[in-house]
Amino acid sequence: MIKHSRWLVQDSQKTEQILEKLQAHFTLEPMQIQQETLTFYDDFEWRLWKKNRLLASNHKGLTFFINHLDLNVYRAEPVPSYAENCVDPQLKAYVSAHTDIRRLFPMADMEVEYYQYALRNEDLKKVCDLNITQTGLGAMLELSGLRGYEKEYREALGVILSSEPDSLERHIFQLSLELLAICPTCYSRRPVFIMGENDNAATALTSIHTTLWQNVRLNETGIAADWDKLFLHQYRVALRRSRALFTQLKQVVGIEASQYFKLSLGDLARRTNTLRDLDVYLQRQDEYKQLLPQQFHQGLDELFSEFANKRKLAHRSLARWIKSPAYQSKIEEIEQQLASLDFKESKQALQPVQKLAAKRLLKSYEKIVAQAQLITPQSVDDEIHDIRLEAKKLRYLLEFFTGLFQEKQARKSLKTLLKALKKLQDSLGDFNDFAVQREYLEHWISSPDIGELENHSGAQSSDSIVAAVHALSGVLFVKQQDQRLDAEIQLKAFIENDMSLALAQLYLKPETTTLPAHQKD
Amino acid sequence: MKILACYSIKGGVGKTATSVNLAYNAAQAGYRTLLIDLDSQGASSFYFRVRSGKKQWGKRFFDTYESLLKQIKASDFDGLDIIPAHQSFRHFDVFLSDINKRQRRLRQVLKGLKKEYDLIILDCPPSLSYLSEAVFQAADMIVVPVIPTTLSERTYEQLLEFFRDKDLPVGQVYPFFSMVQKQKQLHKTTIERMQSRYKRTLITQVPFSSDIEKMGEHRTPVACFAAKTAGGEAYLNLWQEIQQQLESL
């Protein structure tokens, strides 16, 4: 069995002493001495850092991935930019597991020295490896024994331990970066809204919209620079959540303010629709190809090449808008409106947020259940789409207010609801996606875009695109029909897993719980 | 996992140098390799500076693979481990004589190591014995170093005869020329004759080289101190040729 131990030694003299002591027992052969500058990379959300992972490059082809205390070295790697650009499949899997499609940015540089020694016995056979990684913080000593040389490993271990080195909980790179006052962003795509159960609705709403608005603003630069597609996605999510907050809690902010935010935030989101749609379709390129036989692939390739061109234009236009004085002035206007929200007029603004949240959750849930009960195989698709929208509203409410309910039973109920809701939303979302995709593609081939293409690339090109789109639309239609059946099953399951009593408990004191309206005979 | 044996009835033909250098090159090529030094003289172990423990463990060699696991030692090179020879290996034939189905026993025991290793190389002692029979049954490929002389050729013929007598798979035996001195007419004519007679003769010829002799001084594979010499390159080529054969098995 191969043994491995690590320690931190902050006093350089102590490291020297350890080496001297080891020399009395072994022949210490320096194998490698190296000095270099490492640059550490992370995504916009610092997700590697937050998960105790580090990604570093020496800019000479070596990339290091540190998972807690373990360090893996990858050779002939390009400077990190996106997970998909990593050459080694293992590194690619590690990085993409945490950063997905996000752009990787340099976050810090560090000077590092490595010393590698072989500890040899009287035959000059290597029996242990000793690696020393030196940073500004100190030295990390790593001793590993070779298989079959456990006795020698224990001997070396004893020598090192006699110098009482500090134990090491995390990798020296991480500790050293902390020393460099690395300050990860507090940005989170799923922010936790800080509020107390005794806060009133106005305070809670302010806390939520402040956080969401920060997220809107923090994504602007990334969208304009087109660093990765998630900047736009998360910008839109933050806008959508804000909009849902102001519309769902319109009694708290007042009808007029609610209407203002609904329109203004909606306008901002609408500006990004084209780019987002194209991003989604381009992302599905491979998926679409798998759905169609080879004969349509050329048409699909041409279609996606067109989408890629359109995307460039759409991005240019959006970036111009975000940098424009008109956008800035719109933002300032919204920020002024947010700052001047007046809750005095509203009675609901002063009531405890927990009570309001419980009431809204129950109402929203009951609305979905009532609508779902009316769904039959004969119901039109629009009725299912309406439920999808209601489910989304309930999901937002849960995201806003779940933190308010700390009591064990309440947390359990909300967790169960969230799980059931997610399953339902996934199914309804897929059903909707197939419909939207078909509509978009069919609309695209009947729009002036296709005529434009005919002028540029000839009628043959447009014909193959039209054929591919019709074929794809047909496949998507079949998938949509299948998904409709699944959606009906999921709706039935959602109703059967009755949560109304549990939600009522959140609102009413346990001893006064009464059955919700729809459960009374 | 593949098992490669380096074998010759005759001593001093370069079996150990071959085993050591093939093991090193295999590990460098990414094969998780285990070299088992079956020769109680322990020359392979010496080249890698690995010593066996004091315990007389040879008796347990054919028990289970767990007994082997305890004896594995890492070499100085990544991906290359060694089971060093022990003096008690001299009595292998005595131990094997007491075992039922002794011919299959070595293969059975080595099978247990298939999760850990891609390649096992057996450095065999020069004899025809129970052990060599067990080696022939265990190995997927047997490479036989032949010095291109009349006596070595005769020894090789004796080996093939033994295979036929015992109904062993002759097709797994691959001779190659070792310690070749091209300037010697005898070597030239022997090589030509054997090449036309034995179609499985490997193309690579390992020259007689002072660099290979110096392995004993350096106690390391030739590639570690003289990779670019004729000897170093010959063992690399030999490994690549054997690798192709192993992959096709």
TrEMBL record, chain A:
Alphabetized Gene3D superfamilies for the sequence: CHAD domain (1.40.20.10)
Alphabetical list of InterPro entries matching this protein: CHAD_dom, CHAD_dom_sf
UniProt source species: Oceanospirillum multiglobuliferum
Pfam families listed in its UniProt record: CHAD
Signal peptide boundaries: none
Protein name: CHAD domain-containing protein
All copies of domain CHAD, residue ranges: 195-484
Transmembrane annotation, as ranges: none
Lineage, opening ranks: Bacteria, Pseudomonadati, Pseudomonadota, Gammaproteobacteria, Oceanospirillales
Source taxon at top rank: Bacteria
Automatic annotation (TrEMBL), chain B:
UniProt protein name: Cobyrinic acid a,c-diamide synthase
Any one Pfam family match given in the protein's UniProt record, by short name: AAA_31
Boundaries of every AAA domain copy: 1-163
CDD domains assigned to the protein according to its UniProt record, in alphabetical order: ParAB_family
PANTHER family: P-LOOP CONTAINING NUCLEOSIDE TRIPHOSPHATE HYDROLASE, PARA FAMILY PROTEIN CT_582
Organism of derivation: Oceanospirillum multiglobuliferum
InterPro entries xref list: AAA_dom, DNA_Partitioning_ATPase, P-loop_NTPase
